[in-house]
């Protein structure tokens, strides 16, 4: 061995010639370059993020964003007093979102960044729960059995919210007649213990919008008949950054009076790398004050509300970069391009004999399809998923929710960075692999195929 270990060629060094699977901290040190290689190389077995069509989360930003990220990865979002400029930018961002979502009075609004929509949903749900409890206590009624209404197709964060914060989860099952929560049956499940209704702008399973305004009208009717005044939280993890640009006429946001709060994932169609979400309340009255803490800021105080304490500030700066770099015109151009790719792909898939579409990408740029019932018993979409994976594409197959769990669907999320060019290659590969499966004379083996995808 060389005296000067730095001279030893890579892959022949101490730490590389033995195992590098450390589950205990090693005793000694390694050269930084060697350690870097070990970690970097192990992750080569991960899928390629740009070909990951399962995720909604940003996998591409431009070089200036990368530079800004590099410049700011040492900023802790919670250090508002130490990094007042970053704290101010966080506020600009949620104010921009409040405006995009048609908040009635910009001088009376509150919001915050979070680590993602999951945390944002927890905060939205907590505000609903506290408001309900305050009203119940004021009326001298019991406040120990809160429930929250939502579709069976909600993202797992709502299951967590209900579990962690002791709220009964009342699911409206999706069915073939009602593949989204459209308000049917709402009257049968709400009661005086209902803290709110969660409406999805962008159902994770299929990309479809639930009709917020219609559900608002149904709840108005319920209030007229029963006196129950039930608020809405819109889970706009994906759609709240699409609808303002692609469906500006659609009334889903604070234009619907019952909507008290909206969350989105900055790292989904907000076009930022993983690690940022947002929640905004209609007005300060919608957020019970006891949930807000004060931290010192420029000698004064600043409100904060969050489940986390420390978290990266860089993603907030990246969000602001996206807002000022793109503006409304740029955001519209990007979301439209993603939608066109989604519609190009969904049309191509719908033209293949075995398939029928559940959605075509005209709500959010996401579409889902299934094999026509009774078409074949030789293969299913899990096999197609596996065949596409051989070619590098990560496209999930999974069961639907509610009363549709016997149906397997496949979904593609079209994001900024999935170019038309790549989409043409993907469609070619879907065609080729479908033809391969369709020509089989024997059924594909079941063994080894299991559902591993999680929403
Ligand atoms: C992705 C998603 C979430 C969770 O968002 P994260 O930012 O990943 O925490 C919640 N709700 C819906 C509808 C989603 O699509």
Give a nutshell description of this structure.
It is built from eleven helices and 13 strands. It has helices at residues 32-42, 63-72, 84-100, 117-138, 156-164, 186-189, 212-226, 243-246, 314-350, 381-390, 420-438, and strands spanning 110-114, 147-151, 168-172, 194-200, 232-235, 259-265, 277-281, 293-297, 300-304, 355-360, 366-371, 397-399, 408-413.
Q: Notable features of this structure?
A:
455 residues, 35% helix, alpha/beta, Aspartate Aminotransferase, domain 1, 3 domains, 11 helices
Break the fold down into its secondary structure elements and pairings:
Layout: H1 32-42, H2 63-72, H3 84-100, E1 110-114, H4 117-138, E2 147-151, H5 156-164, E3 168-172, H6 186-189, E4 194-200, H7 212-226, E5 232-235, H8 243-246, E6 259-265, E7 277-281, E8 293-297, E9 300-304, H9 314-350, E10 355-360, E11 366-371, H10 381-390, E12 397-399, E13 408-413, H11 420-438
Parallel strand pairs: 2-3, 2-4, 4-5, 5-6
Antiparallel strand pairs: 1-7, 6-7, 8-9, 10-11, 11-13, 12-13
Helix pairs in contact: 2-9, 3-9, 4-5, 9-11, 10-11
E-strand count: 13
Could you name the CATH homologous superfamily of the largest domain? Type I PLP-dependent aspartate aminotransferase-like (Major domain)
Overall mean pLDDT score?
94
Q: What is the radius of gyration? A: 24 Å
Structural class by SSE content: alpha/beta
Q: What would you call the shape?
A: globular
Q: At CATH's second level, what is the architecture of the largest domain?
A: 3-Layer(aba) Sandwich
Q: Would you give the CATH topology of the largest domain?
A: Aspartate Aminotransferase, domain 2
Count of the domains = 3
Largest sheet: 7 strands, mixed
Helix content: 25-40%
């Amino acid at each position: 061995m060389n005296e000067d270990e730095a001279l030893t060629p890579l892959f022949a060094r101490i730490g590389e010639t033995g195992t590098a699977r450390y589950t205990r901290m090693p005793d000694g040190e390694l050269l930084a370059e060697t350690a870097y290689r070990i970690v970097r190389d192990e992750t080569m077995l991960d899928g390629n993020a740009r070909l990951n069509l399962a995720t909604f989360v940003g996998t591409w930003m431009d070089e200036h964003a990368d530079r800004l990220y590099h410049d700011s990865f040492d900023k802790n979002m919670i250090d508002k007093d130490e990094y007042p400029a970053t704290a101010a930018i966080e506020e600009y961002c949620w104010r921009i979102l409040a405006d995009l979502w048609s908040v009635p009075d910009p001088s009376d609004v509150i919001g915050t960044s979070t680590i993602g929509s999951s945390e944002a949903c927890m905060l939205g749900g907590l505000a609903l729960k506290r408001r309900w409890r305050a009203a119940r206590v004021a009326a001298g009624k019991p406040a120990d059995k809160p429930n929250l209404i939502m579709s069976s197709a909600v993202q797992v964060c709502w299951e967590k919210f209900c579990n962690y914060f002791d709220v009964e989860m009342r699911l409206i099952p999706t069915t073939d007649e009602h593949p989204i929560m459209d308000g049917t049956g709402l009257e049968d499940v709400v009661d005086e213990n209902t803290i709110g209704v969660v409406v999805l702008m962008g159902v994770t399973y299929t990309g479809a919008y639930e009709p917020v305004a219609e559900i608002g009208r149904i709840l108005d009717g319920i209030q007229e008949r029963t006196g129950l005044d039930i608020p809405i939280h819109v889970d706009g993890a994906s759609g709240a950054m699409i609808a303002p640009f692609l469906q500006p006429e659609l009334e889903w946001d604070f234009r619907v009076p019952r909507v008290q709060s909206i969350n989105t994932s900055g790292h989904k169609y907000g076009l930022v790398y993983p690690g940022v979400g947002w929640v905004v309340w209609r007005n300060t009255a919608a957020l019970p004050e006891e949930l807000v803490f004060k931290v010192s800021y420029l000698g004064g105080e600043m409100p904060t509300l969050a489940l986390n304490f420390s978290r990266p500030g860089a993603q907030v700066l990246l969000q602001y970069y996206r807002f000022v770099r793109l503006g409304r015109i740029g955001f519209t151009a990007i979301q439209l391009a993603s939608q066109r790719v989604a519609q190009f792909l969904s049309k191509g898939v719908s033209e293949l004999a075995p398939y029928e579409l559940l959605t075509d990408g005209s709500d959010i740029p996401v579409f889902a399809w299934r094999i026509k019932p009774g078409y074949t018993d030789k293969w299913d979409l899990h096999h197609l998923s596996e065949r596409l994976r051989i070619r590098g594409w990560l496209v999930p197959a999974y069961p639907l929710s509610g009363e549709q769990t016997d149906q397997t669907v496949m979904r593609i999320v079209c994001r900024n960075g999935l170019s038309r060019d790549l989409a043409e290659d993907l469609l070619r590969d879907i065609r080729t692999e479908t033809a391969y499966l369709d020509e089989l004379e024997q059924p594909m083996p079941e063994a080894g195929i299991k559902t591993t995808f999680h929403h």
